[in-house]
Amino acid sequence: MARFLYNIGSLAYRKKWPFLAFWLILLIGITTLAGLYSKPTTSSFSIPGLDSVTTMEKMQERFPGSSDATSAATGSVVIQAPEGSTLTDPAVSAEVNKMLEEIRATGVLKDAESVVDPVMAAQGITAQMTPALEAQGVPADKIAADIASISPLSPDETTGIVSMTFDAAAAADVPAADRTAVTDILDKYDDGDLTVVYNGNVFGAAATSLNMTSELIGLLVAAVVLIVTFGSFIAAGMPLISAIIGVGIGIMGIQLATAFTDSVSDMTPTLASMIGLAVGIDYALFIVSRFRNELIGQTGSNNLEPKELAQKLRNMPLSTRAHAMGMAVGTAGSAVVFAGTTVLIALIALSIINIPFLTTMAIAAAITVAVAVLVALTFLPALLGLLGTKIFAARMPGPKVPDPEDEKPTMGLKWVRLIRKMPLAYLAVGVILLGAIAIPAGNMRLAMPTDGTSALGSAPRTAYDMTAEAFGPGKNAPMIALIDAANVAEQDRPQAFAKAVEQFLTIDGVKNAQVTQTTENLDTAQILITPEFDAIDERTSDTLQALRDNTSTFESETGATYGITGVTPIYDDISERLSSVLIPYVLIVLVLAFFVLLLVFRSIWVPLIAALGFGLSVAATFGATVAIFQEGAFGIIEDPQPLLSFLPIMLIGLVFGLAMDYQIFLVTRMREGFTKGKTAGNATSNGFKHGARVVTAAAIIMVSVFAAFMAQDMAFIKTMGFALAAAVFFDAFIVRMMIIPATMFLLDDKAWWLPKWLDKILPNVDVEGEGLSGLDKARTAELKESTSVGAS
């Protein structure tokens, strides 16, 4: 493979225009198509086959007017009267009705006439339900509880809820202009005496809009790190341009994919840009750094002064520079291919667990990573070829960048020598430190994103909190029990429904239960269950489980069956499903990646150490994330919340790939030295010396790129940004730069042990570029000969 990549790199450097044109035309073409045909992303997280989803589908069959609560084009407006007033006051009521009249006039709602004053709606509900329930012999206190559970007016009459349905098949299909037409009116009245906020599927989609601030911050920090790393403003720009091209193609491809599938969630582009930008910069950084080293080696002298080096480069012929690029792509590029492969394995393995929205996010991120690898291997060499001898011009003032071939010890070499003196001590410190940070992970709680997890001060969060305060927290977490009495005698069906209500009211955590709708032949009924607690409270999950545990008792007593559905049960089931597949997913990733690393390092111990180190860094990441975001440690987060349900599995998928990146880039240089005759200890030290500076730069860039996403309002993106930044920090600076070299020193020659029978059957992928050594020697001899001829 190294020889193949050598040919690609040198060809792209020499014949730059076809390669540059291909990627630029591809970017322009995909951008144009995305602009013409892309559709809005979706905020639905539904998973086929879940009990709650199956019940929802059954309800839609029995009640054709029903819709998927997680994706319906619905929204709610929460209205609160001025302090000291109620919504029943004539002046307040007049203002509310004026606002609703303007909303109805927009023409964007499906049934505009259903949008009415909550006071009038409450009065209508009371007038309709009271005599009907009294006729059934329902006690007065139960009638009051039933009315209060569905009334859009709070008991103190200060707060009301107006529900509305937009004229669209799903929330994702609502045009931004339609949503804005309504929110502009609501915001206008919110600036007056009324407090007017909104939430729900349609308005929640507006709240999750993203900006480019995070990407710009990440690029800015990356630029500073790259300038320091290369000592040249021009060279520093190369990884940035390469990464932007790769991410641009990936993101535009995701936008174009919305024209063909409705499973692209609104988080997918951000996750893809997050991982694509980080690995794109890193992969380009490794190749440019190796190219720089190869050019210095081709000058025939190390530790040149900047002016001398610049002069040497200006006089260097194209064939020599193309050879240096070929060597860089053949060696560092090989590591890039396998590093990218581990990321792809970790991401694509997410599709095995069969969760559609997660599969889409994983595939989108994987494609972006694959593009980043291809861009680094082809577009980047062509871009460097375009600049020619000016690649390291525009030098940064200050000390020159250290030369890895210089005999003077670098900071990396000084550090690894300290570890070599006391490897066991450094190993113990690293393990104990990460273990201590991981302790809070035992308290981790998971929940799906709701209006209650939105940013404080946002309209959805304010509406959620106002509803909980005025109506009780359970108002935000309604459940629906679908009672199937098709196998029950027709005359016994009403009693079965009444029995269901009776049993539900005895379950802990149920505030109220009432029949809200039945089919004409009474074979099916919907029972609205109002819990005592909100959607992200653990006690609500316990209540849901208790309701489901009661199904066998109910069936034995009545002959009817039931299932529980609604947004809260669906999200709870998703969380449970994600938790249940976490361990199988980790095992799949570890097994697949073990074989990849076995091919790369041709060692049993190195892949095992890499995997164990990954486990430590992930455990510490979970501990730090739980402590800060869930438990509110250090007061950094003013609104601690449970972690989002799919964060652990996404984090593991992303972090494993990134961790293996550093493992490959750092340890391949160690193996390269070992295969060339160095002792195991010296190979570890020398490999660390060569890789430490560039891996440090790459880690700082990744930490900065990920941490910048904490500026986003979306809870998932904010938490994921922190977790990824923490994971990279722990893995790069504690695991890969302390625990791994300490373990390598302790194992010594045993680190590279591989059974002979396995060595014979494993294909040689030549990541270290051993197959290029003869080519490099021939090129060096050719240069010496031409130099001696020129001198004579």
Automatic annotation (TrEMBL):
<keyword id="KW-0472">Membrane</keyword>
<dbReference type="GO" id="GO:0005886">
    <property type="term" value="C:plasma membrane"/>
</dbReference>
<feature type="transmembrane region" description="Helical">
    <location>
        <begin position="322"/>
        <end position="355"/>
    </location>
</feature>
<feature type="transmembrane region" description="Helical">
    <location>
        <begin position="361"/>
        <end position="387"/>
    </location>
</feature>
<feature type="transmembrane region" description="Helical">
    <location>
        <begin position="267"/>
        <end position="288"/>
    </location>
</feature>
<keyword id="KW-1003">Cell membrane</keyword>
<dbReference type="InterPro" id="IPR004869">
    <property type="entry name" value="MMPL_dom"/>
</dbReference>
<feature type="transmembrane region" description="Helical">
    <location>
        <begin position="691"/>
        <end position="710"/>
    </location>
</feature>
<keyword id="KW-0812">Transmembrane</keyword>
<feature type="transmembrane region" description="Helical">
    <location>
        <begin position="424"/>
        <end position="442"/>
    </location>
</feature>
<dbReference type="InterPro" id="IPR000731">
    <property type="entry name" value="SSD"/>
</dbReference>
<dbReference type="InterPro" id="IPR050545">
    <property type="entry name" value="Mycobact_MmpL"/>
</dbReference>
<feature type="transmembrane region" description="Helical">
    <location>
        <begin position="216"/>
        <end position="236"/>
    </location>
</feature>
<feature type="domain" description="SSD">
    <location>
        <begin position="216"/>
        <end position="386"/>
    </location>
</feature>
<keyword id="KW-1133">Transmembrane helix</keyword>
<feature type="transmembrane region" description="Helical">
    <location>
        <begin position="649"/>
        <end position="670"/>
    </location>
</feature>
<feature type="transmembrane region" description="Helical">
    <location>
        <begin position="722"/>
        <end position="747"/>
    </location>
</feature>
<dbReference type="Pfam" id="PF03176">
    <property type="entry name" value="MMPL"/>
</dbReference>
<protein>
    <submittedName>
        <fullName>RND superfamily drug exporter</fullName>
    </submittedName>
</protein>
<feature type="transmembrane region" description="Helical">
    <location>
        <begin position="608"/>
        <end position="629"/>
    </location>
</feature>
<feature type="transmembrane region" description="Helical">
    <location>
        <begin position="582"/>
        <end position="601"/>
    </location>
</feature>
